Amino acid sequence: MTVEEKISTFSEEFEKLPGITVINEIDGFKPLFMTSNGLELLGLTLDELVATRENYQNLFFKSNYISDYLESLESLIELEGLDETYTFFHQVKIQGSFQWYAASIKVFHTEAHFQPTHTITCAVPLKDYEWTIKRAERLMEETDFARKNLEKYVKLSPREVETLGLAGKGIRTNVIAERLNISSDTVNSHLKSLRKKLEVSNSFELLEYARAYDLL
Fold first, then answer.
1. Is pLDDT of 74 > 90?
2. Sheet (strand 31-34) strand order
3. C-alpha to C-alpha distance for 133 and 125, rounded to whole angstroms
4. CA–CA distances in Å: residue 109 to residues 26, 36, 61, 72, 121
5. How many other CB atoms are found less than 10 A from the CB of residue 177?
6. pTM
7. Which of 41, 50, 56, 52 is nearest to 99 (CA)?
8. CA–CA dist 112, 114 (Å, integer)
9. Which pLDDT band, with edges at 50, 70 and 90, does 65 fall under?
């Protein structure tokens, strides 16, 4: 069964699902199908949506975030297999402003030798979940911070990473020294090196790095 035949077979069922259902090519995330509720929000017909092709990402998403996610998705599919479902938060540009959605995505179609070619996404709006939106916004900010500063972070030694994680939690120098079984002078030396390598000047900026790289 081709992907077009599969969409035709299940399109009526997709319309009954909660949220917005979208079928995309994995290559370039080009759209092939969207339920009518999503098309109405975007103000497009299905043909107009399909015609956006690779521009779909730039037209309707925060491009840096979604491109990073899609790169990670391909790796996840390769590692975890074709049957896994992956969930993420993202923002969609609707009528000139970005709105938050939670989405679940998995492989929808494969071709020869089980090569995945298309994904199916079911997205629901988060406008009524203010707490979740704030968490999603913080997650996006941290992800963007981590991406922009990765080149500096990877220059840290393993011991400097340990020190960063403990300092990010607000632990005093003498306690860090006890936990790492090193002297306070060595801890101060690591902190000085961290500030230089990460180009920061205070504890709050160190905390940003510790949070962004899951050291807390």
1. no
2. 31-34, 20-25, 115-125, 97-111, 86-94
3. 10
4. 10, 21, 23, 19, 12
5. 19
6. 0.62
7. 41
8. 5
9. low
